[in-house]
Amino acid sequence: MVAQRIAVIGSGGIGGVIAEAAHAAGHEVTMCVRTPFERLVLDTPEGTSEVPVSVVTEPGAVGGFDWVVLTTKVHDVPSTAPWLHKLDDGTPLVVVQNGVEHRGSVAELWSEGPVLPALIYVGAERTSPGQVVRRSPTTMQVEGGELGSRFVSLLEGSGVRLRATDDFHTAAWRKMLTNVAPNPITALTLRRLDVLAQPDVQELCAGVLAETIAVAQAEGSALTQEDADKVLADYTALMPPTNGTSMLYDRIAGLPLEHEHITGVLVRAADRHGIPVPLNRTLLTLLRAVQPHPIPGA
Ligand SMILES: NC(=O)C1=CN([C@@H]2O[C@H](COP(=O)(O)OP(=O)(O)OC[C@H]3O[C@@H](n4cnc5c(N)ncnc54)[C@H](OP(=O)(O)O)[C@@H]3O)[C@@H](O)[C@H]2O)C=CC1
Ligand SMILES: CC(C)(CO)C(=O)C(=O)O
């Protein structure tokens, strides 16, 4: 494929992994960032390497991209409005986020070009501006259709396992299963994924996931209890215990957490359907009680 020009909004764990993949597939990457840095360096199971990217901090002069990829936390999307406003010239926008609000989060902000919802399975931690640790291989899923097929072709040769799915709604709820227990539990306990090995924590995870399946089904997904069992069984194979979660990293950094777009979405959907979700509601209450501020000594 002819090299494409790709703009990546957000330069954290996922922005870094997308830039790495796009560069590996032969494309030209521009990172649209809030906090500038000189070099993008990825520390991966295969080794450490610098990814050549252009870094821009102001939307003023940017434009002319073939693809725009949005990789901020869901709650930060409104603050990217100046970038989106500048770049929305008919170009496709790929939204790579957790949760189930991929289209909703940008509905008011991207109207000229098409939106492609995307899911990513990877353990990625931004340790300082421009420095990203990727602790697992990367797998992605995008919504099926012509645009999804084009995005799959775009990243051919990148090393990312990427496929398009005709049931993105179910895929997004399945990804939710990997976040709805680990993200809150690691953020609240300030532990990495090793915390999930504790038998009592595993029991809590199983309960949280059983509630999530009931809500996901009521929301029209095709998930079953087998999916929850598989997620729990696969989790340790997928991620090393040294990995954290995106929510844990925000808690440690004293940043706002993404809970309203993960556990919050789930609890609000449960309320609409009259489904009891006491475990998820408790986690949500505790996450709401966590005030964003740096943790001394963390
Ligand atoms: N990390 C992971 O392993 C995984 C994360 N995800 C999901 O991917 C999404 C992204 O997560 P992740 O990469 O971890 O998040 P990070 O917090 O690591 O990175 C988010 C980036 O967005 C930037 N940002 C925020 N607001 C703006 C803005 N207005 N303009 C430009 N940049 C902005 C931040 O800037 P600054 O540098 O200034 O902080 C930061 O670089 C989330 O939905 C997360 O749940 C999904 C799977 C795995
Ligand atoms: C699957 C997991 C937990 C991987 O780190 C993730 O999606 C996240 O950190 O938000």
From TrEMBL:
Signal peptide: none annotated. It catalyses: (R)-pantoate + NADP(+) = 2-dehydropantoate + NADPH + H(+). SUPFAM superfamilies: 6-phosphogluconate dehydrogenase C-terminal domain-like (SSF48179), NAD(P)-binding Rossmann-fold domains (SSF51735). One of its GO terms (biological process) is pantothenate biosynthetic process. One of its GO terms (molecular function) is 2-dehydropantoate 2-reductase activity. The keyword Transferase does not apply. Keywords: NADP, Oxidoreductase, Pantothenate biosynthesis. Pathway: Cofactor biosynthesis; (R)-pantothenate biosynthesis; (R)-pantoate from 3-methyl-2-oxobutanoate: step 2/2. One of its GO terms (cellular component) is cytoplasm. Catalyzes the NADPH-dependent reduction of ketopantoate into pantoic acid. Belongs to the ketopantoate reductase family. This is 2-dehydropantoate 2-reductase. It comes from Saccharopolyspora rhizosphaerae. The lineage of its organism: Bacteria, Bacillati, Actinomycetota, Actinomycetes, Pseudonocardiales.
